[in-house]
Amino acid sequence: MGENPVSPQAQPEAPVCPRHPDREAYVRCQRCGRPTCPECQRPAPVGIQCVDCVREGAKTIRQARTVFGGAVTDGRPLATMWIIGICVAVYLLQRVQPSLTSEIAFAPVVGDTEPWRFLTAAFAHGGLLHIAFNMYALWIMGTYLEPMLGRARFVALYLLSAFGGSVMYLLLSSPPSLAERAIGQCGSWCTGAVGASGAVFGLFGAFLVLQRRLGRSAAGMYVIIGINAVIGFVIPGIAWQAHLGGLLTGAAAAAIIAYVGRPRSETAMGAVAVNQARRKAGPLQWAGLAAVFVLLLALTVLKYASV
């Protein structure tokens, strides 16, 4: 008796990629065993894996943390570059539309009704040398601090310092008296201030604290801060109050990042334990930074309430 021929319907179907059903796939993922086409294949220690398994595996890997708990980046100071880009863009807009400066500058007289000025003033500048010096200082400090802190903490530090600079400018200003009003004087209460100097000084203050936490020298920074402090009192038109506020705020924020929730020494800990400790300190650090913001906000409210 002859063998019955196999019908075409009984022939096994070619395997296809689950993500691309129109493509035949004879290579299988080493993890899930499903067919995967060349586009969905990823090299693995043994064989290949599909993109879905690679994605699931990445979720189980804890991201490495910087020395102060931030997410490790590729080393490029993208946040610093973005801040510089925004400052330059605002400066160019100021040249095109001169009235913009008075609309975003911070002055205590309008801070209670236009609170956004507490931050917008840090992105505006008065002249070419002003923005050139601030952006140079920002670039030097940002390229060092941002990879150390992580982008999120660096941006938080910068914005808090900018806010702290405006708050100190407010706290050290007083409304004009009746006599001063009579002769048309208003003082710093009505004088607008612009510039990233307060935020930059915040980075200076953070540098001092973080260097001390790491056991490194910061002697050169003390000299820079001293020189700028003298300049602020000698040259008119410089808002030294914002410099002081930014410096103190940046130092306080950096102290929270450097010390809150962190073990005193990590030298005796393994790499995994160190990474876990840095990760666990994150919520406490952010809570501390939020507390600094709330304190600055409370000081602002009290100041306006008193006048």
Overview of this protein structure:
By secondary structure, this protein is an all-alpha fold. It has twelve helices and two strands; from the N terminus they run ββαααααααααααα. The chain has helices spanning 51-59, 78-96, 99-104, 108-111, 117-120, 128-149, 151-171, 178-182, 197-214, 219-234, 240-259, 271-306; strands at 41-43, 48-50. A two-stranded antiparallel sheet has the order 1-2. It starts with 40 loop residues before the first strand and ends with a helix.
Summarize this entry quickly.
This protein is mostly helical and 307 residues long. 59% of the residues lie in helices and 2% in strands. The chain has a two-stranded antiparallel ribbon.
- Give the overall pLDDT as a whole number: 85
Structural class: mainly alpha
Shape: elongated
**Distance, first to last CA:** 112 Å
Uncertain runs: none
Q: What sequence of helices (H) and strands (E) makes up the elements?
A: EEHHHHHHHHHHHH
Strand content: under 5%
Number of DSSP strand runs: 2
Write the layout of secondary structure elements.
Layout: E1 41-43, E2 48-50, H1 51-59, H2 78-96, H3 99-104, H4 108-111, H5 117-120, H6 128-149, H7 151-171, H8 178-182, H9 197-214, H10 219-234, H11 240-259, H12 271-306
Antiparallel strand pairs: 1-2
Helix pairs in contact: 2-6, 6-7, 6-9, 7-9, 7-11, 7-12, 9-11, 11-12
For this entry, give a set of tags.
two-stranded antiparallel ribbon; 59% helix; elongated; mainly alpha; 12 helices; 307 residues
